[in-house]
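Lab notebook, bench 4. We co-purified these components, and the gel suggests they stay together. Before we commit to crystallization screens, I want a quick structural picture of the whole thing.
Request: model the full complex, all chains together.
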Amino acid sequence: MTLLMALLKRKSVALSLLFILIVVVAAVFAPWLAPYDPTEQFFDGLTIEGAPLPPNSDFYFGTDLLGRDLLSRIIYGARTSLIIGVVSNGIAVIIGTLVGVTAGFVRGWTGSLLMRFTDLMMSFPALLLAIALAAILRPSLWIVALVIAMVNWVQIARVIYSETISIAAKDFVAVERTIGASSLRILFSHLLPHLLPTILVWATLGISTTVLLEATLSFLGVGVQPPMPSWGNIIFESQTYFTSALWLVLFPGVAIIALSLSFNLVGDALRDELDPTLKGRL
Amino acid sequence: MQKILKGFALAALAAAISGAVQAQDTPKPGGDVIVTYQNDVATLDPAIGYDWQNWSMIKSLFDGLMDYEPGTTNLVPDLAERYEISDDGLTYTFHLRHGVKFHNGREMTAADVKYSLERTVNPKTQSPGAGFFSSIVGFDEASSGATTTLSGISTPDDYTVEITLSAPDATFLHVMALNFASVVPKEAVEKWGPDFGKHPVGTGAFKLKDWALGQHLTFVKNDDYYRQGIPYLDQIDFQIGQDPNVALLRLQRGEVDIAGDGIPPAQFLQFKNDPDFQKLMVVGDQLHTGYVTLNVTMPPLDNLKVRQAINMAINKDRIVRVINGRATPANQPLPPAMPGYDKDYQGYPYDPEKAKALLEEAGFGDGFDTELYVMNTDPQPRIAQAIQQDLSEIGIRAQIKSLAQANVIAAGGEEDQAPMIWSGGMAWIADFPDPSNFWGPILGCEGAVPGGWNWAWYCNEKLDAEADAANAMVKPDQQEARAERWGEIFTTAMDDAPWVPIFNEQRYTVHSARMGGEDALYVDPVHVPVNYDYIWVK
Amino acid sequence: MAWYVTKRLFYAVLILLGVTFITYFLMYLIPADPARQIAGRSATVEVVANIRHQLGLDLPFYQQYLRYLGNLLQGDLGRSYVQRSQVSDLMAARIGPTLQLMAAGIGVELVIGITLGIVAAIKRNSALDRMLMAFSFIGVSSPHFIAAMLALYFFAVKLGWFPLGGYGGIEHLLLPAITLGVLGSGWYSRMVRSSMIDVLHQDFIRTARAKGLTRVRVLLRHVLPNAIIPVIPMIGIDIGIFMSGLVVVESVFGWPGIGQLAWQAIQQVDIPIIVGVTTLSAVAIVVGNLIADIAVLFVDPRIDVKHS
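Here is the predicted assembly.
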């Protein structure tokens, strides 16, 4: 609670949390909030020549190239972004933590093997890897989430690894070891509690990366499958029109940037609050 | 002969305006032009090139025995001065022009023709067009790699080529006009090996001067071209890697003469409604049909009533509107510009009520779940979604699988993979203007094999026999009857509803105000996309 | 030192081996048949089989991979299935523009990042500081494709300040480089800011000030060189992130570089190019990191080689 209060004191963070809340509400209550069905292609949603409609009193954000209501698609798109953000990043954090803790705690052969593998993954151009995986696995919402997790766990593993090592080197752990505490006990009673702040920070920051990667994959046409709306694939479907129908890029584009920015700001503030040594500096 | 320009009100207007202007001026030589394309020119090797952007480039660098009148689909002799067909339709004798020179200065002879055809068929060349030559005697031996020569081709003297076929083939002269039958000099091919495509040497109207991979190519006029006064242009600069939208904007600014990829949908309306550009816009028919394949071997699509219901469920007019009216709704596999097109055929009407009733009769009153495969570049996923919505109206829940082109093609080539495929982006654009090209590989039994292109897996042996019979009608006076026969084959196939023909796409392109030459040259149905040999600068 | 470098080189080679293996394996799994792609739609089953054999695609996976590795060691990256040219030729033709864009992009990143970082550190906890840091956050929170499209729309289409994409002189380079640079500068400005603040608090700076040196002189001579050290390894890591951005930015701006080649190849499932580009990117990342790590050793004597 005190943490939340501390966070809310910062204007940028309060605004970010508000925006995240709006997106969550939009995602959860999409069927009630959206003015129309996001997949319904309205006959009068296109001009007689087949052009999309700019924002007007029937369609507040205008229509897309199939005559669907853009606002409704953006509201439903919030679901896609959040689901992928939370699920995919959750998987990434779990894998990253497991790998990082194991490597840092067990050390030896297993540890260095795991870290070499992490290095290997770091050397992969992330986007190329994600595209290749998406192409092999035939994209769907869950596959996209999985693909992004496969790419994103690496950084988390690195951070957790170095944290684990520094905690394990601390005196109290050494003392525990000498008095014969089991590894598991050390793991659960000391390591994890100390790692929690780092995990929390990365769980927040990672959502931002995930949202961006999902948008990019969808923009390249290998992400979420139509007609399910995602902010990235809305732009993908309208990209050729962006010089004549800017609203089709602008609205979802701003949504992506705002959501990613919000998670970044919150994550950054969390890091400040949870790590007093860094306070006011980063 | 069929009309090239369709009577689209707008196009007629545009043609009338530009026609009136052009009537006064005659082609004049000289001038450099800039043409843009988005995708890389993969190769200029005529045995290999099979892309949108390199097809007519290759035609300008190389010649074959046959070609078409500029801007039309009328076959005429090219490197052959004339030809004779034996009474049994099995032997073609081509008499070559004298004094035609390759870009390297050597005279082209009958031996070059033989060598070039054998090279295309040789599996080492890995030509995507080898299969077109299967009617030549000795093809099987050559294509299996057992021998490198085609026993059916002989050269009695330097200027005569005799080709013997294993069965009469009415399309053979068209095949000889394909890029894959272009004549290449052996010494240049052997010098460059697999990189001949980067250093092309032909007999064509232009020569390749310069090529910066992925950036630009420069063609210069071949002064020794055998046709006097052709080409008109001195030089063509092809700029590669230009987004079609950007190319259009540059054309508006006068920096580009021809946008090779045509007018992208986004700018189409803007151009169409802008009086300055209307008259620079050119419209032409393609030998193209966009269709949805219904896999006749996969339940419940193996049920004829279900396939008919799907045919009646799709609102083609709306789909045409989604792509800004750049197409006309189709009701049969053949496009209107193709001989054999049956303009009296009504096809399946758009009738969701009837469609629902048919589904009910078939026992799918509650609909069913299925999949619709589609290529993942715009506008294909959009069109697929329009189809999806129409299907959902009659209770069919189609999940869209939007994949890279190669993956869709791979899925279509497996018997139990893809129930439905929207053909856009991979659709059949005829290789040559003959209806047979729309049958064998995509609707005949020969294509219904693993890895084939008959994604409906439709195999009707009776119609295949009809098709063979039609192809054996080689006499000039049989052609009308042959076309009619072909038309019947396609409409009969539609009784089995293996496809939903959706639309015939039209090509809209634009050139700068200074470009001259008939509109048809800019949307040439054979020299796709532009016939560079005959256009000129005012 | 020599031991350290040797060890790092050995790891680098191992990593590259792993990258080629994984990429090749992923490509092997892709459900598309290159032989059929090459053979075209008129091909018979026999022709397809013949081509598959010529390409060695009928071999088991490990043999295909070993063959690839063998050729790779001789500098042969294979031939593109679609473009029918040597992959090395295709990449060579495009490496120049990509290096140009990368150098310009990283240059813009550094200039913006370091400048903003210094200003923010000096004015720390002021409104200006908060504004600059918010700006840096917007940069790192924006996907490249949106930034690129909006930049193209406003600065090229609407205002006409820049050409509409394409390759050529400096005017073509500016807009994509600035787009990449602005988006990437955020990490640098934040890092420079915090390391500046760190250094400012250290004893030798206080001593320098106490000795009566001017503020500007202390900043330039003592603070900045020390504050910039953490930026160096950052550039190494950045190369990897940059490669992903390049794929998108090059496609939107029509820049004839490696990223565009990669994207075209992915769409056409042109496996030799995909493997080639991935390997090349991995080399760039590994070498970039290696150079950065070694450079830091020279710049910053405090780092203890044995423990890194």
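The mean pLDDT of chain C is 83. Worth comparing against the SEC data before the next meeting. The radius of gyration of chain C is 24 Å.
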